UniProtKB/TrEMBL annotation, chain A:
CDD domains named in the record: PBP1_ABC_LIVBP-like
Protein name (record): Branched-chain amino acid ABC transporter substrate-binding protein
Domain called Leucine-binding protein: residue spans: 41-402
PANTHER family for this protein: AMINO ACID BINDING PROTEIN, LEU/ILE/VAL-BINDING ABC TRANSPORTER SUBUNIT
Gene3D superfamilies reported in the protein's UniProt record: 3.40.50.2300
Keyword Transmembrane helix set for record: no
TrEMBL record, chain B:
Keyword Transmembrane helix among UniProt keywords: yes
Alphabetized Pfam families for the sequence: BPD_transp_2 (PF02653)
Membrane topology reported for the UniProt record: Multi-pass membrane protein
Source organism of this protein record: Streptomyces meridianus
InterPro entries: ABC_transp_permease (IPR001851), BCAA_transport_permease (IPR052157)
Protein name: Branched-chain amino acid ABC transporter permease
Recorded family membership: Belongs to the binding-protein-dependent transport system permease family. LivHM subfamily.
Keyword terms, alphabetized: Amino-acid transport, Cell inner membrane, Cell membrane, Membrane, Transmembrane, Transmembrane helix, Transport
PANTHER family reported in the protein's UniProt record: BRANCHED-CHAIN AMINO ACID TRANSPORT SYSTEM PERMEASE PROTEIN LIVH, HIGH-AFFINITY BRANCHED-CHAIN AMINO ACID TRANSPORT SYSTEM PERMEASE PROTEIN LIVH
Record localization: Cell membrane
Amino acid sequence: MRHRSLLVLTTAVTAGALTLSACGSRDGGNSGNDSSGGGTTVVIGLDAPLTGDLSALGQGIKNSADLAVKTANKNKEVEGVTFKLTSLDDAAQAGTGQQNATKFVGNDKVLGVIGPLNSHVGESMQKVLANANLVQVSPANTAPQLTQGPEWQDGKKVRPFKTYFRTSTTDAVQGPYAAQYVYNEMKLKSVFVIDDKKTYGAGLAATFKKEFEKLGGKVVATDNVNPEDRDFSAIATKVKNSKADFVYYGGEYPAGAPLTDQIKKAGAKIPVVGGDALFSGDYIKLAKKNSEGDMATSVGAPLETLDTAKEFMKNYKAAGYKLPYEAYGGYAYDSTWAIVEAVKAVVEKNDGKLPENADETRKQITEAMQDVSFSGVTGDVSFDEFGDTTNRQLSVYKVKDGKHVPAKTGEFKG
Amino acid sequence: MHDLPEQLANGLILGAMYGLIAIGYTMVYGIVQLINFAHGEIFMIGGFGALTAWLWLPDGTSLMVALPVMVLMAMTCAILVGIGAERLAYRPLRGGPRLAPLITAIGLSIALQQAIWAFYPDAKKDLSFPQFEGGTVHLAGISLQRGEIFLLVAAPLCMIALAVFVSKSRTGRAMQATSQDPDTAKLMGINTDRIIVTAFAIGAAFAAIAAVAHGLKYGQVSFRMGFIAGLKAFTAAVLGGIGNIYGAMIGGLALGLAEALATAYMADVPGMEQFGGGAWKDVWAFVLLILVLLLRPQGILGERVSDRA
């Protein structure tokens, strides 16, 4: 029976391998040198997917935060304080994000954390950081429950963690905003809704669906996919035969690009509409011509149209980063700058230096964050009582000639 | 159910790809009783080989012209890695405890994946693969993508070629003999080492063809694509009866059909609404595997072989 048992063992090992591979890879933090020529060094921790298929967005976040740190040091924004960025890779895995959060907490020099990109990773980091009073500002988490508690949809908004802030708007407005745009301005009345069952994707699809039905639109079918899959032929055939006017996809571009590609190849020439996680140049690169006409909503106004963003874009280019800043670059810059401002406020409060005790410093920075207000890359940055940004601008982008072109910018009115 | 023909086509095409990869698992298992877990990575390297060939060719080369070069390059890369794996990782362990080559295979799989991740330019994210120009082809009410036609032509040709090779050629018959009893085969003057290398090479070549088909169909390759594809192909090989080359193809087709049909219709079965949809298709594919293994532990086409050793 040796062979049979070998087969059973092999199957068990396969299952193990599946689990292991889900843990993803991790690469060490960037250990920069500590030489600051006197004064205090404040480390800002950054957590984002720097590898894997969301790395385009993650690297954009990292570079933009790096630019903010360099700018703050160059301008001597806070007298006597040198900022340093330490980046960790979460590979879009919740478990890895949590480990990274623990690492940040363990380092006394870390006084603020930027990130992560993914809402489900954010969910796993919140408590670890909150227990240590370490402030966290996410440039990209859009799931509403992160700031408003799990029962936000029933109107019971409770802020779960007072250390958590974000500079991006939430899916509670992003999904409905897309619904209003498509229904009122594109005049498309029937939709096939697909999501990837992740915190971000499922939440986005649900808020979209609710608003679209409220407006009078028809949801002809719903379906879901595994975000790791690349074969969507069966769903593409279903979409084609459903005769829907368009597809709404709650999910991210690595699966979104092949999905739109296969829907069009199956013969359904209808646009795919999605959230800010489809708003990446890689989406177009992967789906090529079949991404034409697709739409993505994203938080804030297009950077190109904001005066405050022009300098950021100029400096980003001058700094010579290899990869573009992508959808969240501006928000990452503002998140970093919010931490710089909070540190500045604490330094001013304590007669020009930070408190000796790291726990005390972290606590004061968290408190200072609540009152931070400055003019950032993406507009005026400040936080409401839930830690959400007070900037509620949204934009719709449409793929035209291989580029995301802004179609509309506005504020969501419920 | 009006889209049944199309869903069947989707399932068969996906299944043919699983089947092509599964051949590599089943041939190696049939001869050395080793599950070559690095086979999924050999498939992935085939994909990157094809992409490299495409990038080397001058811009503006038509894909029709480039395709043979790409297939050749994919096969060369995959076969080299396959043979290298056999020579360097598995042969030194032959005759050792059975667990040793298995663990080595898993290690090799991770090493190959990370090597591509680290050294292939820009491979840290999905890379786009060339696509055929032109729209969908309609054939008897079924719409086919241009990229799928390659697979539809290649898969049956490969199967026929393999069947003829194994049953008619000298090496093929030596292969069968080695799989039945390696020691006696050796006594009869068969160079079993060469036969084993041949099995690895054929498996790698088939995986390379599947990889080109994968690239053409989905328009992208990534360093992680071998993992899921390898897992599915391994499942297909077990489903069809591991060690049986026809079983690998049958198992692949069954798996592909199960996935497509579960995605398309499971939600329509009363009481199953919440278990329908694309995210559940793997669950149904594995339910099928468990059912088959419960009723026929040797797999669909597998024969109940008395255990050697």
